[in-house]
Amino acid sequence: MSLSTSLRRTASVARKEFLHMLRDPGTLFFAVAIPILELFILGYAIDTNVRHIRTVVYDACRTQESRALLRAFENSDDVEVVGTVDRDEDLAQRIVAGKARVAVKIPEDFSRRLEAGETAQVLVLVDGSESSAAGTALNVSNAIALQESLKRALGDKPLPVESRPRVLFNPDTRSANFYIPGLMVFLCQMMASFLTATSIVREKENGTLEQLFMTPVRPAELMVGKLVPYLTLSFVQFLTIAALMRVVFQVPIAGSFPLLLLINVPFVLAALGIGLLVSARANTKEEATQLVTATVLPSVFLSGYLFPLESMPWVLQPVSKLIPTTWVIDAARGVILRGAGWAELWPNALVLTGMAAAVITLAAVQFKKRVS
Description:
- The protein is mostly helical.
- It has helices at 3-22, 25-45, 64-74, 88-96, 110-115, 131-154, 175-206, 208-213, 219-247, 257-281, 285-302, 317-320, 324-338, 342-371; strands at 53-59, 79-84, 102-106, 123-126.
């Protein structure tokens, strides 16, 4: 059999899949509209820069010094004083009721201790049920206490040591700059795996897959023909989300976007291979959906998207290296935020290529067994 004949058969399968995809509004809506909707929802909802934490205060001292300390809290953008109370019980009750995340009490002897040169303590109650708000509240209260202490200790004298930190690549520490490049990868992975798995399973349910098996089309041609449309659709989706990331969310791209597209090729192939593996196991669309979800969830939590890899238990760190998403998220952040080039990212491309080859090979074996 000539190569041209094989290519024609593969193209025929791909054309059939393209036509089926175009005639199915649900597939196109799920592939294009749903990721865009999720991008807007998650892109605006995820914000690790906690601001305006609801704070309630109890000033039992009521002196010039206590009012000055409270003004320091009020002038901070991180906390927002939403009320005052006159009893200790009310402080805890406001936090339990969820009306405040932080409660500050200045004791009666606050000014007297300051005048006597003693340590004046301030009680700060922090709601630990929201870890991000709790961490910010602790940092702010400690910073204000340190600032007030330095004012009293040094007066108008300059600080003996001054730290001038500078944040590289994301100086405004915008959450969108950090999360949306990873979100773009996840949406691409989920759609590629899900569409491939459900499209083949749908043909199983309709009985049309068996009809294809009886044609002269070989298993390899059938598999490639099935994957090409979804590979194309995945890149259209990736480009659409990237354009929205740049235009709507104003995320700058510091490096070469074509390089990121190149590195994304083996990642998408691996995701398509996962979908093909799922289709070999699943017999219904519901089962395929559950299996794809089971592959996506570890990618969310173990890829470094939400938590730094270094903070994970040492047992899970090697596992994260076996997940393709880990490598492509690092590449996406490298290109978009750090301006990394091929010299820094070739290991990511090499690992992703090896993973894609392994997954596609395994999927081809399973698919061939299914055909047989």
